[in-house]
Structures are given as structure tokens and as C-alpha cells.
Write a structure and sequence with these properties.
The complex is a heterodimer.
Chain A (H helix, E strand, L loop, with lengths): L2 H21 L5 H4 L2 H13 L2 H33 L1 H14 L8 H8 L3 H25 L3 H9 L4 H38 L4 H11 L3 H28 L9
Chain B lengths: L1 H4 L9 H5 L3 E8 L8 E8 L4 E5 L6 H9 L6 E6 L2 E2 L7 E4 L3 H4 L6 H11 L4 H14 L15 H14 L4 E5 L7 H18 L2 E6 L2 H7 L2 E6 L4 E7 L8 H6 L1 H15 L2
Parallel strand pairs in B: 3-8, 3-9, 6-7, 7-8
Antiparallel strand pairs in B: 1-2, 1-4, 4-5, 9-10
Classes of the chains: A mainly alpha, B alpha/beta.
């Protein structure tokens, strides 16, 4: 039996057990629904566009937040990585801010931006900023010092040094930070939607739950799992496709 | 005396430039904190176009000295002058070939790309850049490897790439920090001959650091022997073996042997 078939055995058995248990009346229909109903709800949701629209809203906020975090995290990370003085000066501030759970910023972000895209994107950005910042600093520290000396002896300007030495030398590790952040961005975006923001998959799942449509809720939950898996697979491929040796000089 | 011996290739050079040494090291000391000094009261001149070899045991501060000439570090005492101006910062005029070529090349750039880095830094624009890269790679015997990456090359080839990159910036002073120390004997001898030839052809002033006495005598117009603890000049000696020097003949030259004999004891002395 090929490996990939082995992996499908458990989910298929679970689905069969779920359907059979529900048909036999062992499982309460209003909270556990039933695979056949969930499948129908998924088809309906995809047909009328509601699932795709909610998915787009969630991804939009996640990617915007991720973009903020990447720009800020890489820029600040490179500055702090290059300057030990700046790093030690900002270290206590950063260490003080970092333990704040990102979702604890929801009230503040709500006051600042109201409901909508920016509320969600800023909370996502805060959550994604830290892994990107820390991995960028580590990546800059990991640059071969000899290469920075080569840059000095060639009198490269700050921008040239950044473009020709620092960015290519750190890209490998930056991609690892980015991959981590992609996963975090989806988690935080959905969390903000579940908690308060009236948009995206998190919000439509809450609405389904409140209107006792467990079939719709399960459909979106499974869909969200697929989206997350796909996102992870895509970033994984992007990271691996990056030219080898870009990160660590052999 | 300096004026008489200086080799000046630029016919337009003025009288004062002619008199001026390329490098002047004045009473240089280097001490980290309260530890024993790495270098103590080192002074010497390097004439324009001369090939100076500095040889010494490990820990004598020869790499520290070279990094000062490059401007990568500053001495704690004394001064380093380059054509009369104090050396305070690195400059494209002074290229440095590092010993650890694997760390000094950009792993994400090809051989041609690594050489291009210097030309980009010097502001050489595109059509000219390509032809300069082609010339340099041909000079260093790298033409067939232009599109390969450093990790695909042998150590000797990688060091050739680094030398090509340094030549690309047309330096007035070429600094070499034990460039062949990590290479096998045959590769090393080949590269020694090439560097000697290139230095004469280009008229570039060279300061070459090594722990190999024979390499120093083979290459140098002048050999300085450093003693350790603290690093100081133990002996400075001129080598008048005619150029071009071929490995076998030069090493059998009576002056080579007598110089080697005289300096050998100094290096064993500690």
C-alpha cells in the first residue's frame, strides 16, 4: 500500500463513522451536523460566493498585516543587527513589548481604526513582526564578517551594501522567518474575526454558529483548514525554490 | 636614496611623488586594553612599485599590521601613511586579498559576478564592465569558469577569483594576507609565479604577509621578519634576485640560499 493511501485511511474512517453515527441518531444533529449536510453547505457556500468572499477578506487582512510586519521587521532588524549600540539601546523596549499577546491589542486597534481591514491587519502585523524581527537580527549577525570587510574595502555606500551584500546574505534566513509569519498571520486574522471583526471566515463561522447552522460552520472550518494547508505548502515551496546557498555561505 | 630607488611607472609623476614612499609605517603600536602589545614600535617604508614580504611566526601581529595598512583597524600608537596621507579608513586604492577565500567571496554570485562587484563599486558602466571582467578572468586563468559559483571551484581557483576581484579595482597598493597558506604546494608555487609576474606588469606596490620564509624570499624585493611578543621588526633585508624569477632557478640562486640561511635562524629563535 503506497504511503499516501495510508494517510487517507484515518480521515475516511472518521468521516464514515461520523456519517453513520449521525444517521443512527447517536450524535446530536444540531451541534455535530453530518458530513453529507456539511458537503451540501460547502457546495452552496462556494456556489453563492459567500465562502470565497470571506476567504478573500481573511487573506487580505492576513497578507496586509504580513506586509507591514515584513517591511518593519526587516528594516528594523537590519538596523539593529548591524549596530550593536542600537540593539542594546532598544532591547529593553522590545523585550517589554514582545510578551504582549497580539489579541490583547484588539481593543486598542478597535479604538484607533474601528471595525474593518485595518483593525485586523494591525493586530496581524504586531503578531508577525516579532519572528521576522528576531530572525532578521539573527540573520544579520550571521553574515560572514569578511563580506562586510570586503564591502568596506570597496567603499560601498549604505544602499549598495544593503542591496549587494546584506540582503542576499540574509535572504535564506529571512525566508524562514517569513514562513513562520505566514502561518501566524492566518491564525491571528481568524482570531480577530472570531472575537470581534465583522468580516472574513472567522466572522462567518461565528454567524453560522449563532444561527445554529452547524453544517455551514463545519464547512467553513474544513475549508479554513484547507486554506491554511495550501498557504503553508505554497510558502514552503517558495522557500525551498530560493537559490541554494543564498542564506549561509558554505 | 628613496628618490633614486623608487620605481615610477607614471611618466607624469611629479618630483615630490617620486620621492614619496607608497606606504610609510611610523612607530606603529597596537595594544588591546592592558594585554601585552601585539605590535610595538614598527616602522618601515614601502617604495612605489616594490614587493614587500612580511614573514613571521604566528602571533607576531603580521595580520594586524596588514589590516592597519588596509585601514580596517587603527593602530593605538604611531601612524600609517599612504602616499603621504594618513590611513584612517579603507579605500578602493588599497585592495586586500584575504587568506580565507571561501569567506571573502559572495557565494550567491558567479565568478564573473564576484569580479563585477569591484567594478560596480568603482562605477565602471556596463559595456566596459563585461570586457574588463573578460580580461581579468583571462589574466587569472579563469575564463572557462566565468559562470560557475565559488563553491564549485577548488581552493586555488577561488583564490584566483579573489585576486581578480582585487585587481579589478586597479589598486595602487595590493595587500595579501597569507593568500596561499591554505593551498597545496603545487598550486601555491603556480600562483606565486603569477602574482610576481602580475605585480611587475602592473607596477602595483604589494605587501604580502606569509609564514613561509621561502615564499617571502621568492616573491619579495624586500623581506621583513617580525618577531613575536611583542610583534616587532627583527630584520629587514633586500633580495636582489633578478626578475622574472622562475621557481627552480630562483630557489637555487646563491642569494636565495644565503638570505634563507640568515633569516631561518631568526624565525626559529622563539
Amino acid at each position: 500500500m503506497p504511503g499516501w493511501i495510508k494517510g487517507w485511511v484515518l480521515p475516511v474512517l472518521l468521516l464514515i463513522g461520523w456519517e453513520a453515527g449521525s444517521q443512527a441518531g447517536w450524535l446530536p444533529l444540531d451541534s455535530t451536523s453530518r458530513p453529507s449536510l456539511v458537503y451540501q453547505a460547502a457546495l452552496d457556500g462556494l456556489k453563492d460566493g459567500s465562502i470565497l468572499q470571506a476567504t478573500w477578506q481573511t487573506l487580505e487582512a492576513a497578507m496586509l498585516g504580513l506586509a507591514f510586519a515584513t517591511v518593519a521587521g526587516v528594516a528594523i532588524g537590519i538596523m539593529l543587527g548591524l549596530s550593536a549600540r542600537m540593539e542594546s539601546a532598544t532591547r529593553p523596549t522590545l523585550d517589554g513589548l514582545r510578551p504582549i499577546p497580539s489579541v490583547a491589542l484588539i481593543p486598542l486597534a478597535l479604538m484607533l481604526f474601528g471595525f474593518g481591514l485595518m483593525l485586523e491587519a494591525t493586530v496581524v502585523a504586531f503578531a508577525c513582526f516579532w519572528p521576522i524581527l528576531l530572525l532578521t537580527i539573527a540573520a544579520v549577525h550571521g553574515i560572514e564578517p569578511r563580506l562586510l570587510e570586503v564591502a568596506r574595502t570597496l567603499e560601498l555606500g549604505a544602499l549598495e551594501r544593503l542591496r549587494k551584500i546584506i540582503l542576499p546574505a540574509t535572504l535564506g534566513r529571512l525566508m524562514i522567518g517569513l514562513r513562520l509569519a505566514v502561518a501566524i498571520s492566518l491564525v491571528v486574522a481568524v482570531t480577530v474575526e472570531v472575537v470581534i471583526n465583522p468580516r472574513g471566515l472567522g466572522s462567518t463561522m461565528m454567524a453560522a454558529q449563532q444561527s445554529l447552522r452547524s453544517d455551514v460552520m463545519y464547512a467553513q472550518l474544513i475549508w479554513l483548514g484547507l486554506v491554511g494547508w495550501l498557504l503553508n505548502a505554497l510558502t514552503h515551496r517558495a522557500v525551498r525554490a530560493w537559490p541554494g546557498g543564498a542564506g549561509a555561505p558554505a | 636614496m628613496k628618490a633614486a630607488l623608487a620605481i615610477v611607472h607614471d611618466a607624469a609623476a611629479t618630483g615630490s611623488e617620486r620621492a614619496q614612499p607608497a606606504v610609510r609605517v611610523l612607530d606603529v603600536s597596537m595594544q588591546y586594553g592592558s594585554a601585552a602589545p601585539v605590535l610595538s614600535s614598527v616602522s618601515f617604508d614601502v617604495k612605489q612599485g616594490a614587493f614587500l614580504c612580511v614573514v613571521g611566526p604566528s602571533g607576531c601581529g603580521k595580520t594586524t599590521l596588514l589590516r592597519m595598512l588596509a585601514g580596517l583597524i587603527q593602530p593605538t600608537g604611531g601612524a600609517v601613511e599612504f602616499f603621504g596621507s594618513p590611513v584612517l579608513e579603507p579605500s578602493r586604492d588599497r585592495a586586500i586579498v584575504f587568506q580565507d577565500y571561501t569567506k571573502a567571496l559572495l557565494p550567491w554570485r558567479t565568478v564573473a559576478g564576484n569580479v563585477s562587484l569591484s567594478l560596480e563599486a568603482c562605477g565602471v558602466a556596463e559595456p566596459e564592465r563585461q570586457s574588463r571582467i573578460g580580461q581579468l578572468l583571462a589574466t587569472m586563468g579563469l575564463a572557462h569558469a566565468a559562470d560557475r559559483y565559488p563553491h564549485q571551484l577548488s581552493g586555488g581557483m577561488q583564490q584566483r577569483v579573489q585576486i581578480a576581484r582585487c585587481l579589478a579595482q586597479k589598486p595602487r597598493l595590493l595587500l595579501m594576507d597569507e593568500p596561499f597558506g591554505a593551498l597545496d604546494a603545487i598550486t601555491r608555487q603556480g600562483l606565486q609565479e603569477e602574482v610576481a609576474r602580475l605585480a611587475v606588469e602592473s607596477g602595483t606596490t604589494v605587501v604580502f604577509i606569509t609564514h613561509d620564509l621561502e615564499e617571502a624570499i621568492f616573491l619579495g624585493d624586500t623581506v621583513i621578519v617580525l618577531a613575536a611578543n611583542p610583534g616587532r621588526i627583527a630584520e629587514q633585508i633586500d633580495v636582489d634576485i633578478p626578475r622574472p624569477r622562475a621557481q627552480l632557478e630562483a630557489r637555487e640562486n646563491p642569494q636565495f640560499l644565503s638570505t634563507r640561511h640568515r633569516l631561518f635562524g631568526l624565525l626559529q629563535g622563539h
